[in-house]
Amino acid sequence: MVSRKEVASLAGVSEATVSRVLNKVGPIREETRLRVEEAAQQLGYVPSALAQQFARSRSGNLGVILPFVPKVHLFSTYYFAEILSGIGEAAKQYGYDVLLIFREPSGSRDYARLFLAQKIDACIVLGAQNVPEEKTALAELQKKGYPFCLVNQRFAEEGYLSVDADHHAGSYEAVKHLIDGGSRRIAFLNGPDVFSSSMDRMSGYKQALANAGLAYDPALTLLGNYSRKSGVEAAEAVAALIRSGQVDAVFAANDRMAIGLMDGLRVHGIKAGVDVKLVGYDDSEGSVIVSPKLTTVAVPFYEMGRRAARRLLAPEKDGLAQADEGLLPVHLIKRETSS
Amino acid sequence: MVSRKEVASLAGVSEATVSRVLNKVGPIREETRLRVEEAAQQLGYVPSALAQQFARSRSGNLGVILPFVPKVHLFSTYYFAEILSGIGEAAKQYGYDVLLIFREPSGSRDYARLFLAQKIDACIVLGAQNVPEEKTALAELQKKGYPFCLVNQRFAEEGYLSVDADHHAGSYEAVKHLIDGGSRRIAFLNGPDVFSSSMDRMSGYKQALANAGLAYDPALTLLGNYSRKSGVEAAEAVAALIRSGQVDAVFAANDRMAIGLMDGLRVHGIKAGVDVKLVGYDDSEGSVIVSPKLTTVAVPFYEMGRRAARRLLAPEKDGLAQADEGLLPVHLIKRETSS
DNA sequence: TCACACAATGTACACGCGTACATTATTTCA
DNA sequence: TGAAATAATGTACGCGTGTACATTGTGTGA
């Protein structure tokens, strides 16, 4: 292995000068720089990231904490793939590497330890839930001043750094679209309220109803867990509501449940888009594959990942922090299940 | 920040003893161990991974090189998510972290530099292609003795470490299934031959035809690029072949193309599963969402990722290397498009 | 020409850990 | 009981880099 020493020796300078040339710090005579660069080139010298990290006391790693989802082995593919990809772009831009952290099945969340061990300089928590253990873990990060950012989740009272989309507006749009199309009895298949996005969607749903002078009926709100299966399972109840004339449209909090619901309803002889209108959420790949095509709400997951990383990594001077504030816009995509 | 020094001081031993206790090396008096552990606990001491890595000259990172796929921002979700998840499990098991490496859009492949910089101790290359730049990059890794493993790709002549599934057998099964169902004129929508899996599928396709006494007709083989769009684009040609009676079934090299093809054919008034049989490949999420449900070949992506990581990280003594050799089995899943 | 500013480089050390080697304490065995 | 073996611990240093500080070189202005 070739180190700074050999380069210095070959270039006929001290190690410090080599370091300065490579890090572009301090004044260097042009001739010296060339000699050093030449020597480094010739020896194929590559600085040891290990030594650099150690000397700088910075790992240069951005940790990304992934939720443990037992069914799909890792993640509800589309959603996380996009976010991760956005994170990757920003990380690269700012010279950071992305360290993947798979949460334990046990649910242990000792995020602070990752900082203590200096494995990461900052981290993005995906799929954070509003449960006590999570809140404790995040509070510890906050207290110790470790930089972290949530994606698609907010803890209103805590004021943690987070990047989120405007799910209230998205749901409002979705439900308003159904109302505009003539629906008056709209069921809502929501996800668990440990996710702020579920709460946001609920409020958007309610507001759209209220704005149209429609009453909110708790009996029309069903609870799923964002899985396809839970959509299928909701079908029976939804079918009954449809048959009894209590429901003429359904808004599902994500596409997976919406698609599961479509399948489940089909068994009951009910066809989405014909017998009942349906709107999903996420604009996932499945939404255009399914038949009829699913009306849904597009969420800029890629951009959300990018912003989260940028907020953590961008130097203050870039002044991006401000530009990155606020909820990202979502937009309704009208397809076949709502016309 | 609390370091070994404070722990040693509090426990009344030397730093070396602290190190020995925590690393469980050498004989330690029980009482001493307890004192040290107590002290570490009390101080909340967490060893600096940075310093450890530096001292050991090992990063403890398993690099995962991700292909650059412009359209889907990161990856054809299901496929990579599963592999990545499997890698994550094995990495965790062997005490490694997963460092994500997003390939440059430019296509630069200086994998060796990652090792030179000591950023990773081993790496898994996803989506490797049989193109000159790739071969050069991999040859360099091999030459320098850096441990790496390919997934779902082989370079026959080079003998690189790789984990692959038996796509020849999978394709054979798929096409045989179509033949058994009465099809005699089977088109093949394959992917680019820079992927060995494409070549494997081709040979399986040919063998199934040959075994059934059917002639291989190059005119019935179409080329896509594994994207949904390319499936849609192939529809016109396939539709013509079907109309002219030259084709009564199609085998597509992955689900995305198969699903795109279904959509494309629908425009031409041709319904998969009714007017033409269709088999896809991958058993992706979409295959059960699409209607009619797609017959496909299930590939153990998760297990492939796990094995790739295990091959690189498992200590010799575990003797897993041998168990992990050979192609992983795939299996046909019969659904609606082929009955 | 001399003093002084600043450019350019060298010297020296810290960073926190693993570990080879030296040293001391304890056991074993005759 | 004494010597040898072994357990238990301490001492000392290397790992490769960043960088504070010291030193030397190079103008600059009166």
Automatic annotation (TrEMBL), chains A, B:
Q: Which keywords label this protein?
A: DNA-binding, Transcription, Transcription regulation
Which InterPro entries does this entry report, sorted A to Z? HTH_LacI, LacI/GalR-like_sensor, Lambda_DNA-bd_dom_sf, Peripla_BP_I
Name of protein: Transcriptional regulator, LacI family
Sequence ranges assigned to domain HTH lacI-type in this UniProt record: 2-56
Q: Name one GO molecular function term.
A: transcription cis-regulatory region binding
Q: Which domain of life is it from?
A: Bacteria
What CDD domains has UniProt attached to this entry?
HTH_LacI (cd01392), PBP1_LacI_sugar_binding-like (cd06267)
The record's annotation in Pfam families points to: LacI, Peripla_BP_3
